[in-house]
């Protein structure tokens, strides 16, 4: 009886277990084209808002000599390499 159980486990149970998890892996949620478009739109919006904040800081700095725009100084000192890489990837993707 134990031999039959072992054979059934090897030839039925093991393939069922493997196929079950392969199916779960393939049906896992992934990014769709709509999701990617939304992420790109949000990224562009964040960039525009960042530019607006820098513009406001420049205007305030021009009107008030005691104001020091911290964001502009910090951005000029250390440019974020991850954002530059993301810009390159987006420009390469839109060029295709």
From TrEMBL:
Biological processes annotated in GO: phage shock; regulation of DNA-templated transcription
Chain coiled-coil ranges: none
The keyword Transmembrane is assigned to this record: yes
Keyword terms: Membrane, Transmembrane, Transmembrane helix
A Pfam cross-reference name: PspB
Membrane spanning residue stretches: 6-23
Organism: Novosphingobium kunmingense
Official protein name in the record: Phage shock protein B
């Amino acid at each position: 009886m134990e031999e039959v159980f072992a054979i059934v486990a090897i030839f039925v149970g093991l393939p069922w277990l493997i196929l079950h998890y392969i199916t779960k892996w393939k049906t896992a949620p992934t990014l769709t084209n709509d999701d990617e478009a939304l992420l790109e739109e949000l990224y562009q919006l964040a960039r525009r808002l960042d530019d607006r904040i820098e513009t406001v800081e420049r205007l305030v700095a021009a009107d008030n000599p005691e104001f020091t725009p911290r964001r502009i100084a910090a951005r000029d000192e250390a440019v974020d390499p991850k954002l530059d890489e993301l810009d390159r990837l987006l420009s390469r993707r839109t060029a295709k």
